[in-house]
């Protein structure tokens, strides 16, 4: 028994290939960023957690060593705002848009009214009542 095959479809156009290639590059970059962030998190905090458990069991960890490992974890937390703009273009754009120190010259500054309207979801909309919702 042979199953009849559907007629073969034409090969994907160059536009769809470009679309797929663009998204695979974005996925690869996102995976790389996530890998770097998680790797740094484990390198910074894993010694702290292991030392913390060791301290609970035997009490043989010097306080100064424990402090050093705690500050290593704190340093990891300070690295995140540096890593995100390095690897994520959207994050960099958002920082440039809202922080004056990161704004490029010539970019318009968002007004306080537009920011509050955007954040409060209180833009123009049709009046709704409980009767209309139910």
TrEMBL record:
As for subcellular location, the record says:
Cell membrane
A single GO BP = positive regulation of MAPK cascade
Entry's transmembrane regions: 27-48, 68-87
Q: Does the keyword Cell division apply?
A: no
- Superkingdom, according to UniProt? Eukaryota
- InterPro entries documented for this protein: GPCR_Rhodpsn, GPCR_Rhodpsn_7TM
Identify the main location.
membrane
Q: Where is this region: Disordered?
A: 114-134
Keywords assigned by UniProt, alphabetized: Cell membrane, Disulfide bond, G-protein coupled receptor, Membrane, Receptor, Transducer, Transmembrane, Transmembrane helix
Please provide an example of a Pfam family that matches this protein in its UniProt record: 7tm_1
Protein topology in the membrane:
Multi-pass membrane protein
Name a single GO cellular component.
plasma membrane
| Domain G-protein coupled receptors family 1 profile positions | 1-84
The GO molecular function terms of this record are: G protein-coupled serotonin receptor activity
Recorded protein name is 5HT6R protein
Which species?
A: Zapornia atra
Source lineage: Eukaryota, Metazoa, Chordata, Craniata, Vertebrata
